[in-house]
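Good morning,

Both structures are done.
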Amino acid sequence: EVRVPLGVPVTFVIRNTDPIDHEWIVGDEAVHAFHRASAETLHAGDPTAVSVPALSTVTTTITFTSAGRLAFICHLPGHEAYGMVGWVTIEP
């Protein structure tokens, strides 16, 4: 779990030390339902959905506009079931 402040830009540094690709998607249940059903595996231009190629590091910056708790999940086949899930708590 990661705690971040509301309304302040937060930069996430995501390191993939695996020899396979991953993704990092943060959002509410509707966002995750969409990505579970989507065949999209490459993400660009959306700071809340990023591709993390094998053996690489990516950064993304997000300013959260609502307090609460959001999941971040890798939706590539089988990854969520293997436990690639975490939480972002946005604190006022």
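Second structure follows.
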Amino acid sequence: VIETTVIFVAIGLVVFALAFLIVVLVAPFSVNKEIEDDQNTSLAIIIGSFIIGLAIIIASAIHG
């Protein structure tokens, strides 16, 4: 049981990291600069929503 949990966690983290990397690369601006330096709250909310949505999708795919 623990082995499958670790495997699913690893797969979920890899998929999550790849999706987040794609979003950062596709954005026509620096996401890091916009959120940290310019205090762009709306972008932070959008990125946070993306993270939550992706986590729900990964969890449903793993759960079956």
